[in-house]
Design a protein that fits this description.
Shape: globular
Oligomer: single chain
Order of helices and strands: HHEHEEHEHEHEHEHEEEEEEEH
Distance between the termini: 42 Å
Structural class: alpha/beta
Number of strands: 14
Radius of gyration: 20 Å
Number of domains: 2
Helix content: 25-40%
CATH class of the largest domain: Alpha Beta
CATH topology of the largest domain: Rossmann fold
Largest sheet: 12 strands, mixed
């Protein structure tokens, strides 16, 4: 999909969603944007991600959707809901993105270390991991909660296996394992992939510090990363250093950190995502993440805006 095709599809999707999505339509109207003047990607209005917390962001009616994914959150924080047109479609899409980047899943043993996510219903990450485990067709693939010894034994037993071992883990759980004092022998066929998130379990750390700890424990040269969220149907992947390549369905544009309605004049800013896979909800999302592009055009996610959750809650109260 070239740039012209992406822009054409995005503008067509904007015209559809401004007609069929009542939440998006109301937001754009409140900003007094003339829809007929939206003719480029840069002129498309982006919906602040906090709207997923209070409203059904859907094209059509909420009753038309059988299920939704919900975000994780600390106690007292309102969680997002992303209504799903078809979970089957989402999982197939997620598989296609992964396999285009990493190859067929049946070449992997998939070990998912996802505590907190497994302990609540409605996680899109858990659904994706279940799909990966199933498609791998490996009797060794599976989920792990807090059973670190069992996980390490399983990994060690697969060290000389012909398949690659994908350890897919939430960041705080991988750090807990790396700092457990347990022994682990390096494996040549191991890929460690962190999905982000401390979820109130640990203090926030910069990516380089996290990756250095994980690389030292697992004996790998790089830590892979997955960038996704409840409000998006697509994912981006990094094979190291937190530098992401985007799938064909995604585009990231950077806004000014002090003026969310203006584009950044620098190579870094607030992340606005166009996800064409969000055709049933809203494809144009203003996130609370900060990012930058490097000299090769790769996206680096720098973290979240300070107090972004608090700021969003205050706005909703007002």
């Amino acid at each position: 999909m070239d740039a012209w095709d992406f822009e054409d599809l995005a503008l067509e999707l904007f015209r559809f969603q401004i007609s069929e999505n009542e939440v998006y339509k109301s937001y754009v109207a409140a900003r007094k944007i003339e829809v007929s003047q939206v003719k480029t990607l840069e002129s498309i209005p982006f919906l602040p991600i906090r709207f997923f917390k209070d409203f059904p962001v859907v094209c059509g009616q909420e009753a038309d959707f059988d299920s939704f994914y919900s975000s994780s959150g600390t106690t007292g924080v309102i969680t997002s809901k992303h209504y799903v047109w078809s979970e089957t479609w989402y999982l197939r899409h997620a598989q296609e993105i992964f396999e285009k980047k990493y190859g067929a899943l049946d070449n992997y043993h998939v070990l998912a270390l996802l505590p907190a996510y497994l302990e609540r219903p409605g996680s899109s990450l858990v659904s994706m991991a279940k799909r990966f485990i199933k498609v791998s067709k490996s009797a060794h693939s599976g989920f792990y909660l807090y059973n670190q010894d069992e996980l390490l034994e399983k990994m060690t037993s697969l060290g000389n296996d012909g398949r690659k071992v994908l350890l897919l883990g939430v960041t705080f759980a991988l750090l807990d394992l790396a700092e457990s004092g347990k022994d682990f022998a390096p494996m040549e066929n191991l890929i460690v992939m962190e999905t982000g998130g401390m979820k109130g379990r640990r203090k926030e750390m910069i990516r380089e510090e996290v990756h250095d700890i994980l690389k030292a424990f697992f004996g790998v040269e790089s830590i892979h990363s997955e960038y996704g969220m409840t409000e998006l149907m697509s994912q981006a992947y990094s094979k190291g250093d937190g530098k992401y390549t985007l799938p064909a369905t995604m585009r990231v544009m950077l806004r000014d950190v002090n003026d969310p309605l203006s584009w950044s004049s620098r190579s870094q800013g607030g992340i606005n995502v166009i996800d064409l896979a969000n055709f049933h909800s809203c494809a144009f999302i203003e996130t609370q993440d900060l990012g930058k592009y490097d000299e090769n055009g790769l996206l680096e996610v720098l973290g979240r805006f300070d107090n972004s959750e608090i700021r969003g809650c205050n706005l909703m109260v007002q």
